[in-house]
Structure prediction request, 413 residues.
Amino acid sequence: MASQGRRPVGIEKIWAYSGQTALDMRDLARARGEEPNHPTDFLLMDKRTVNPCWEDPTTMAVNAARPMLSEEDLASIELLLVGTESGPDQAKPLSTFVQHFLGVNDNCRNFEIKHACYGATGALMMAAHWVASGAAGDAKALVIATDQSRTNFGERYEYLMGAAAVAMLVSDQPKVCELELETCSYWTKEVGDTFRPTSRAEAGNTDSSLYCYLEALDGTYAHFCRRNPEIDYLDYFKRHIYHVPFGGMSFRAHRALMKSQERRYKKAEIEASFKEKVEPGLRYTRQYAGLYGNSTFIGLLGHIDSGGVDAGDRLSLYAYGSGSQAEMYSARLGEHARDWVAQTKMQERLDARFPITVEQYEALETERTSSIDQATFSPKRDAVPGLWEQNYEGKGLLVLDGLDGYFRNYRWS
Prediction:
C-alpha cells in the first residue's frame, strides 16, 4: 500500500545497543532449581543483558544513538522522543540528557513518552506523522526506546527481565523501511496487568497480562481488517513481528491470528508458518531476554539480518503495552535495509559482551537496587573483575559517574 498523496516516511537509520554483559539463562535456571532448558526451549531466551550500576536508561539511549548519527543528522533533528517506563526522575525527562550528550541541535523539542512497552511505538508514530505533515520542512526526528527491569530475584517472571535500547532516525528518506501509515490500527482498554507503582517495584499478574496481550491482539487485528479490507494478512506480509515479552509469546500470537482466519489451519501448518515468517525475527531477541518497548524493533533487525527478505517486502508489526494499548501496522523494507543493518555488526557486538555468573548478576542487581532514591551514590567499578577494563575503559561509552544531591552526573568512559 503506497503512501496516499503524502511524502514517504519511515526509518532512515536504526541502531540497537547490545549492552556490555551477558548472563546465560541456563545458568540462572539451574540456580533457581529449574530445568536448564526451560528458558531456552519454552521462553525462547538464551541470554540476558544485565546493566552494571554505571549504566541506566539514559546511558543506554545515548549509546544506542551515538554510533549512527553524523554531524549532519544532529543538525537536522528537531524532534527527540524517548519511549521508556524506566525514567529515573519524576519530572526531568531523560531526553534532556540525551539531547545534551549527543549534541543534538538546540532548536529541538524533546520529551519522554510513557505507556509501558507501547511507549516507543507511540513515539515512532508521533514522529512519523510529524515528518509526514511537512510542518518542519526537511527536519528529522530521533526516536529512542530504552528500558531496564527492576530486581526480581526468585520470582517466576525473573527470566523476563532485561535491559536494551534502540535508536531510530525518522525522516522522509526511509532507507531502512517505510512506514505505511494508512495501515495503522489500534486498540486500547484500561487493565491492571503489569505496572510499576514505585521506584523499586514491578507489580501485576503475569498470567492476566498474557490474556490482555491476546485480547488486545484480537481487537487490534479486527480494526486492521476493517481499515484494510483489501489486505490478506497471511499473504500480504513476507514476515510478521509481534511484541516479545518472551520469545514463546510470539508463537502464541501468531497461532491466535492463524486460528482466527476463515480457513482452518492444521497444527503442522501453524508451526511451519511460525518457523518461516516469525522465528527469524527472534534471532537477536533471544540474546537479550526482557526487551520492553524495544522488542519489535530488535525483531525487525533480526528479520533483516537473517536473510530471506528484500527491498520492497512488507512486514507486519504488532506492539503491545500493559495498561493497555496495542497497534498493528505495515513496514516496507527500503533499498538499503540489509546493507545498513549488516554494517551495525549486531551479532559481533552481542558476542563481545562480558560473560557473568549468577552470583555476579545478583551482586550487580543488588547494588543497583541500593542506589534507587539515594541522594548520593558512587558506582563500584570492581563488582565484576575485568568488566570495566575490558568493555568500558577507553571505549567512549556514556556512563553514570554518580549521584550528588540527586543530580545524575555522566561522563564518557
In short: DSSP finds 16 helices and 16 strands in the chain. The radius of gyration is 20 Å. The longest strand covers residues 177-188. The CA atoms of residues 26 and 37 lie 6 Å apart.
